[in-house]
């Protein structure tokens, strides 16, 4: 009886993660580095949803995509995009028969945790003027004081004029900041838990300190700031009620590490998957089946709202594509198309952090540098608030990725009873699509600066392209 080669048997029978850098050749390593240069540029110009939509349109238009409102009929190979309220966008390449074949869909979200200005944010106190904020999404509040902040967003003036604002990104711009106690006076603060150390009502942004030269005015500094805003933008205090202004990290996406293998930036969650999915659509060579790339909003607060994954705009835009393709449009037909379709919820996951081993399931976590992560289900504790991909669908994806030599791994969001989180996958599942979560592992998720591996970013792009071409 021949002696068993247990080394080969181990390689054949066991699941082992692979380090992407060890698996890639020089050509792929160079391609990964170049891909991430484009990604960093996208991040620097897309810190809030409206900016991401603008950047996506610019990328798509360079590739020949047209606004669906400018197109009367659609045929195989046509490339279109559709915009919903400037915060939600679809990119699509039309296949041969949408009604018969369904579509392949990548859906990601372009919102991320940050600080939003309150409706009446401006106030003066003790020689300083502040903006009051309301945090958006899941943040650790103690991470936001003492870091440089930039202001992004839009204001609709009383006369109907829209003003776009970006302050704090250029070297010559001022920045803004939330204060914190010095250690010498922080004895009681330091006794509090991290959750209690900085409260939501203490996340007030310093924006100025010079008063107007008139002793008759009660709030001299506040009026001075309003004068600046009025001269620069035509804005009055009442206009804040019709504004959408966000405070975000005033830092550029930067290479991290001596080997430049990582990217530190604001907003990886989930713009890393949004960018990779759009580039995968642009580079896909599949002309047979309709391919769609959705960027949605409001995921960080439960996907509530008319620009979210729960919005019926998704059904509406599918109906428009059917109609312009000359195919029947009715309620039943739309949902039959959805039933024939497959999707990836292109969203990030938590990467294993060796400094916090106690919250991770080391066997089931995603690891930095080990490829794009496939999560069969998300949710929390007893699989609440999740969808779960079927074995049949996961097998199809495995076969595609292995055949295309995509380096991928499994992922999961922490130990069962330590928390967890949901994604937009559950809202696609409600529409009866096959769907699974697949994205990039992130360190510092939801922090003002997050970390991803360039190798994982590149593998996500390759996986998404393979999904479009082979599904």
Automatic annotation (TrEMBL):
EC number: 3.4.11.-
Cofactor: Zn(2+)
EC supergroup of this enzyme: hydrolase
GO annotation, cellular component aspect: cytoplasm
InterPro entries with a match to the protein in the record: Peptidase_M18, Peptidase_M18_dom2
The organism's place on the tree of life at top rank: Bacteria
An annotated Gene Ontology molecular function: metallopeptidase activity
Pfam families cross-referenced by the UniProt entry: Peptidase_M18 (PF02127)
Keywords annotated in UniProt: Aminopeptidase, Hydrolase, Metal-binding, Metalloprotease, Protease, Zinc
Keyword Cell division attached: no
One biological process term in Gene Ontology: proteolysis
PANTHER family: ASPARTYL AMINOPEPTIDASE (PTHR28570), M18 FAMILY AMINOPEPTIDASE 1-RELATED (PTHR28570:SF2)
Family as reported in the entry's similarity comment: Belongs to the peptidase M18 family.
Record protein name field: M18 family aminopeptidase
